[in-house]
Amino acid sequence: MTPTHLERLIQLLAKLPGLGPRSARRAALHLLRKRESLMQPLAAALTEAADKVRGCSVCGNLDTVDPCGLCQDSRRDGTILCVVEEVADLWALERTGAFKGRYHVLGGVLSALDGVGPDQLAIDPLVARAGTDGVKEVILAMGATVDGQTTAHYIADRLGQLGLSVTRLAHGVPVGGELDYLDDGTLAAALRARRPL
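User: That's the sequence. What structure does it adopt?
Assistant: Structure tokens below.
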């Protein structure tokens, strides 16, 4: 049986992160109620993004130009390279306004269970870039997961022969966090990463 147009819309919306079948039905109904003010502009924006947004050949960010706007920004510090798992991580760091260097998106993390090895990630381009672009420090901004830390250690080993400073983001107590509500791993990481006040 072929799904109707409405069922197809709901099925596609349900594939988006954070939307299950019920949320997808509500979103579909909302879009249909706001057909001219929301649905049609959304369809046009999706088509335009599909046609024009590309991955940056230098860092892996998404943009309509290649190299992306961040790579073209001459005000950014080219001696510091921040390595992230995904584009969403790059965007999260950019939202803070605290980092003014350059980025490198790996496209995921090493995962033996999922069959993701070094060849499936942008690790070789990272090593080549770090060795030739005047980079002095590489910040490994991987998640505090087993796979994220495995990836960070693998990259640190690969970069070790280049004589660069390889650092990682601090792990520990979040701003506004109460010790009683934190898990044991977070508390242990916070104790190991302590520094003078």
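The beta strands are 54-55, 62-63, 77-84, 101-105, 137-141, 165-168.
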